[in-house]
Amino acid sequence: MNKIKQITILLILLWIGITSTSFFWNYIKVKQRKEMISYQTAKSFFNFLVLIRYWNASHGGVYVPVTKKILPNPYLDVPLRDIKVNDNLILTKVNPAYMTRQFSEIVREKQGVQFHITSLKPINPQNRPTSLEEKFLKDFEKGIKEKGVFIKKGGKTFYFYMSPLRTKKSV
Questions:
Q1: Domain boundaries, the chain
Q2: Distances (CA, A) of 117 to 14, 18, 28, 83, 133
Q3: Which residues are 82's β-sheet partners?
């Protein structure tokens, strides 16, 4: 009977070892998958935003009606920034940076996704970097192409992704 108890205990320990190993293996795989999906989603979103900005820039900016939500950009110093069409319609030029700010407000409201433009030398003071963004921006100056990390904020976990957004002068 003692031999049967030893074999039983050994089988139970073996079973616990196998199930524990399986649990930790699957836990690691799920965590890696979560990181990969978060990264790919953020990178796809960033690439989409770059294309939208390219479309705007390829037209030299676009004109939209001035409304309560879209006012002239005080940081855009170009001739013909505003065009009065008639007493009821004034158009203002929206460059890629201002469009990105407007678009980010819509996306945050409708989808809960937050993004913005930042710089170590921002033209618009609202684009000052956070301490994490500043660290990433300095890494980009050293040649790093992109960075993504999970951060905890307000008891929730978020994926934070950043990539350099290279701008060119409009022709």
A1: 34-162
A2: 54, 49, 33, 27, 10
A3: 92
